[in-house]
Amino acid sequence: MIEIRELSIFNKQKQILDELNLTVEKGERISILGKSGEGKSTLAFALLGEISEGLFLESATIKIDDDLVIKNGLLSKSKDLQTIRSKIGHLDQDPAASLTPTMKIKCILKELAVNKKIFDKECKEILKKFNLPVDEKFLNKYPKELSGGQKRRVALARILLRKPKLLILDEPTSGLDENTREQVLELLNLLISELQATVITITHDKYVADSLSAKHYILTKGKLEVLELEPNKEELSVNNKSNPNKNNIILEVKNLTAKAPLLNNPPIKDFSFCLYEGEILGLTGQSGSGKTTVIKSILGLWPAISGEIFLKGKRIEAFYKDRSKLERQMLAYVPQDPKTSFNPAVKIGKALKRVKKSKSDLDNILRKVGLSLAEIAGKFPDQFSGGQLQRLAIARALIGGSEIILLDEVTSSLDEKTKYEICDLIMNLKGQTPMILVCHDHEVINRLCDRYVDLKH
Fold first, then answer.
1. Has residue 321 been placed in a domain?
2. DSSP characters for 62-90?
3. Is residue 404 within a helix (H) or strand (E), and if so which, with residue range?
4. What are the residues whose beta carbons fall under 8 Å from the beta carbon of 312, sequence distance 6 or more?
5. What's the domain range around 393?
6. Is residue 45 a contact partner of residue 51, using CB atoms and an 8 Å limit?
7. In a domain, 232, yes or no
8. CATH no. for residue 143?
9. Predicted confidence (pLDDT) per residue in 308-355, tens digit
10. Which of 233, 207, 228 lies closest to 217 in space, CA to CA?
11. Residue 344 counted as domain residue
12. Residue 297: phi, psi to the nearest 5?
């Protein structure tokens, strides 16, 4: 059983969790819903006895079975916390964070396995269920050689090999395409049932909550409330498709063959498309189908094996460093994880002012994304929610005066309310700057894109 009593955590700006109370019975499966920035992940880490830098524990008692994680506002000793954590399976919101980059996949999976004598057999069975390869070639790869979806599935397999009695799942399907999401949910339900585990799922997605949990709570203003009724769900309307100006091609990709570094087989082969002035072009497909590979090749970060890329009719070099400064400035990239867009040690205001714009110009662009220079200038990146950071990343792309913006799964890690807000923001920018939107969510694709290409894996 899990008992949380009067958990209060704050930072210098606000109270994040306010005398929060929760009891979870052994074998119970609950979910905690809430929008970005409400403190869902802060609660998950508190259960592990982890308080992030910049946060302060005001009061709390947290007990898991007979183990005290926090007593009267004080964390247990480090040695005791290590013992407690060894009994918990925790899937972080960023799956790559749990995979040691210098370890091969086989070593990562074996590291925490309970029964190492039957590891090979058990590992292969679980990998097959996750639709992952079981051959030595795959097991000898490093995390950087896998797609985002594959990393997520490896992280799940690693937890399940551990056979924990408590699972804390922090956005377990974030960033996965619909097919992979269904497979992961099905497998989680099967193994949770077999293990008779207690499960706490942190998610913004009501569908995921319904799939994994029998009881839902919503976290708002630092308090937990039982979610009794089905909430009203805003529908994403399908946008009427406009006709792009086909007389003005701004980007053309011809016969592109490309792959991520260290991969043997390129997922993108002989691929061609055009981006027209003022349009949003969607790239969709399952995890591992090569969506991000196309974007990184256009940027010159993963140079193409073959093919040509033209910007405004002029052929550009495959490798970023071989391009002119003007050619590099024409392309702006907004990644899936907004935290990687900014240096954590540099205040946002200073980062934006590196672009030669007046304060009034900066403020005008920030207002387009629903922010102002005054409210963001003195803060560091970790003081913003995921949705706010995504707005700032888009603002920086606009501030740089780029001709094309490349958006890579920019809504995948956001709660539904924030996702709609980012969609509205992109819609408001439509027609000003042509964009390529990588996204596995067909609702978002249908709403925002004039055309889309489905990359078959």
1. yes
2. EEETTEEEEETTEEPPHHHHHHHHTTEEE
3. strand 404-408
4. 250, 330, 403
5. 249-455
6. yes
7. no
8. 3.40.50.300
9. 999 999 999 999 999 999 999 999 999 877 777 788 888 888 888 766
10. 228
11. yes
12. -70, -40
